[in-house]
Design goal:
- The structure is a single chain.
- Helix 3 links the parallel strand 1 (42-45) and strand 2 (65-68).
- Helix 1 (6-15) packs across helix 4 (92-104) and helix 3 (54-61) packs across helix 5.
- This protein has one domain (6-135): Glycogen Phosphorylase B (Rossmann fold).
- It is built from six helices and three strands.
- By secondary structure, it is mainly alpha-helical.
- It has helices at residues 6-15, 30-38, 54-61, 92-104, 106-120, 125-135; strands spanning 42-45, 65-68, 85-86.
- It has a three-stranded parallel sheet, sandwiched between helices.
């Protein structure tokens, strides 16, 4: 599953095992995204410019394993080998390898999913609102 980064989609699709499928959620409403995330195994983060990093965190909250680019804002919660499989922003070959790795190692994928769910429990709407207000100098 992917939300942004259309130029990486072709490379990712070619790397998937034949038993896997890729659903692109760009342009979905928030409700459609939430419903799709609930039924997805893995979220592929391909936005290199994501400043807040919220789509991968949203995927973690929904129980998806996250693999891909951290963008500019994902490093707070995308911890390589702990809560996500992180690939350097823009590294297409690394992303293809990571997608194959995640697909072929269910134990690793489940470990990342479990740890990311534990971490995502820390992020609440109220806490994120406070961070945003502070960042904007409104609190």
């Amino acid at each position: 599953m992917s939300r942004k980064g259309g130029r990486y989609i072709e490379a990712i699709a070619a790397s998937l095992p034949s038993s896997s499928s890729l659903k692109i959620i760009e342009g979905y409403s928030e409700t459609e995204v939430a419903e799709t995330l609930k039924h997805s195994d893995t979220f592929i983060a391909v936005s290199v410019n994501e400043a807040f990093g919220l789509p991968p965190l949203e995927a973690m909250c929904a129980g998806c394993c996250v693999v891909g680019f951290p963008g500019d804002g994902g490093f707070e919660f995308m911890r390589h080998g702990e809560t996500a499989h992180v690939v350097a922003n823009g590294d297409v070959e690394g992303l293809k390898k990571a997608v194959r790795l995640i697909a072929s190692q269910p134990e690793y994928r489940d470990k990342l999913r479990t740890r990311s769910l534990e971490l995502s429990a820390y992020y609440t709407l109220d806490r994120e609102r406070e961070y945003l207000l502070r960042a904007l100098g409104l609190e």
